[in-house]
Amino acid sequence: MWEMDYDSAAEYWTKKDKESARMEEGALKQRIEEFITGHNTCALATATADMVRNTPIEYNYVDGHFYFFSEGGLKFMGLKKNKNVGLAIFEPFGGFSNIKGLQVQGVAEIIEPFSDEYLKVLEHKKISKEAIKRIPHPMSLIRVVVKSYDFLDSDLKKEGFGYRQHLCVS
Asked: Fewer Cβ atoms within 10 A, N terminus or C terminus of the chain?
């Protein structure tokens, strides 16, 4: 009877990364930030022991953190029980020679409405505080503090690097 070797499959990239040509950390961080700022939508994954929610959502990238305004939804059940989140930003698949995407692991926090940080992100989005105050319930603001990035870019191979680069932030 066949049995899946989950451990071996989970270790695939860890082993492959050890043999891969690595970019210098500063150059990698710059390339990742260019990718982030070149997009504005991601999939935000939240989870509990018995539920996973993966929400397509617009993000704002401010001072190295991801921010999401949200009216609500099931993602908040995940955030209530588990602050660890995953983000995925990607371009449409165009074949293995044209892969571009970013996976982010981080920790989510809810920012107090109308705090200095909340107002800073509103200003970044060019939304007035008065406009938000007219809404019956203020929008929730989720901040994700990044722990690590996994960046996929097939163009990196042309530059002599592995097309997958891992960067720990915290």
From this structure: N
Instruction: Give the pLDDT score at 14.
Output: 86
Coil vs helix vs strand at 146: strand
Cβ pair 140, 76 in contact under 8 A: yes
DSSP string covering 42-88: EEEEEE-SS-EEEEEEE-EEETTEEEEEES--THHHHHHH--EEEEE
Q: What pTM was estimated for this model as a whole?
A: 0.92
SS3 160: coil
How far is 86 from 160, CA to CA, in rounded Å? 28
Amino acid making up residue 100: K
Q: Average per-residue pLDDT in the chain? A: 94
R_g of the chain, CA atoms, integer Å = 18
Q: Which amino acid is at 148?
A: S
Amino acid making up residue 58: E
